[in-house]
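Per reviewer request, we include the raw input and output of the structure prediction for the construct analysed in the revised manuscript.
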Amino acid sequence: MYFIILKRKNLFLITLMLFSFDLLSKVLISNFMQNAEDLKIIPSLIHFTLVKNYGAAFSLFESFPLLLKFVSLIISIILILIIFLKNIISHQLKIGLVFLLAGSLGNGLDRWLYGYVIDFINITILNFPIFNLADIYINIGILFILYDNLVKSNHRNIIKH
């Protein structure tokens, strides 16, 4: 069953589903919170705070919006080519790349449509930058890719000894 889920057409559907969740969350938040300052989901823990992020992670490179648009487009194209044209054996790598692609598409679409990324998840107790679902997907993707590399590295070390 696990192997069936990770076939190419299903990877496309999973990417589309994740991308759709991100898009829907941003549309709902943008429409619902147009005039609201803060929506307390779990008081003193998680709030929804609508923010326009003109930069990349942690608002880096906000002076280069055109660069960020093209970087997100190029990364998305490269990920599509890797996922759908390359024969990837590792399931962890497939999952990681799918999450990265969904996140890249979600934030990339914002950049192309609005010139900024819609962020809204505010973990108030950490004083952490406000983020969105696409950012979560990107981090999940990175974790799966790191895990995949760790497994491959351990496997190579076992074979050497």
